[in-house]
């Protein structure tokens, strides 16, 4: 579930500034930092070799192990990014609620 949220968030962060400005709001387009997470390249794995070629299979398995490590690091990075973004949203919501309370007070 969080992975889907991360993908949605990363798509929203890459919207062109012009598209973001059409939605209105108080924040300038592209104000929030993009995630610095590096998504691993699945195409670097190549095709799985035949089981007869043990050297190629070992090399492929090393590539898979490296990819899996990069994928785990990517997921942790996105989780930290999302957690930080959620905290930032909480701060903004607190400020908005305080402003509304102040505006509504006699």
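^ structure tokens above, recovered residues below v
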């Amino acid at each position: 579930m969080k992975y889907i949220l991360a993908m949605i968030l990363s798509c929203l962060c890459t919207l062109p500034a012009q598209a973001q400005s059409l939605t209105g709001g108080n924040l300038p387009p592209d104000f929030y930092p993009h995630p610095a997470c590096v998504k691993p390249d699945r195409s670097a794995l190549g095709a799985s070799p035949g089981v007869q070629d043990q050297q190629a299979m070992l090399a492929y398995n090393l590539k898979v192990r490296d990819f899996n490590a990069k994928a785990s690091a990517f997921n942790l990075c996105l989780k930290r990014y999302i957690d930080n973004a959620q905290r930032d949203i909480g701060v903004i919501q607190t400020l908005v609620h305080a402003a509304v309370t102040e505006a509504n007070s006699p």
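The radius of gyration is 21 Å.
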